[in-house]
């Protein structure tokens, strides 16, 4: 009988990342790309095109006339917001099937999106060179949980039931039921399978222990701090409970990587980020109408 690790690797072969979304991301990252070229590619995916138009026509932008073409929607949204929408919608559609009714997919993606938005703002404020990359890392940080919930339902229920008693760290419980694997390792394997850049794979793999990342500890530290910030504002990954024991264990290491003093994370900081997240979440208008 195949081990869980072998089953995971076999399953990951069956989870493709949408080709249209990958092409859009590639084009957005190319400074020579035009809105017309992007519109041509997005139009190949009707569901994606409809979502882009819906966001462009949302009250946030307040455009006086209805936006009916993809090209104009791209101009209104801007390339950065377009990339965020494409990533979010494509990932949700790729991994949204076969989920147990007890798994709250909307809240999962809401949490993922908010951590992505927070990571992006932290990256900008702390001078990280590619804020779009930071958004992707934050959005994807818990993607392994979705794989476990979808393909290992029995193990997932056991992990959640034991984890919510708060007697053992989730990592320890995951390793017990998943052949010594964790959700962040599974997520990084999936990102690797999708040919995402090495720094994104590493950020997913080390977002619980950023200081151990061998290549670039800054990006996973930003994801860690983003999730910490969201937790302090009451935004948890509801499917895995609202505990935060891993923050205590690695918090000082992350502060050291980012060269931050603990006093930096005061009430003023959290109020500032709550305002930033609320505005950006309204702009995206993907899974909920309000923060």
TrEMBL record:
Pfam families: HDOD. Residues 14-210 form the HDOD domain. It comes from the Bacteria. SUPFAM superfamilies: HD-domain/PDEase-like. PROSITE patterns: HDOD. NCBIfam families: HDIG (TIGR00277). This is HDIG domain-containing protein. It comes from Candidatus Kryptonium thompsonii. The lineage of its organism: Bacteria, Pseudomonadati, Candidatus Kryptoniota, Candidatus Kryptonium.
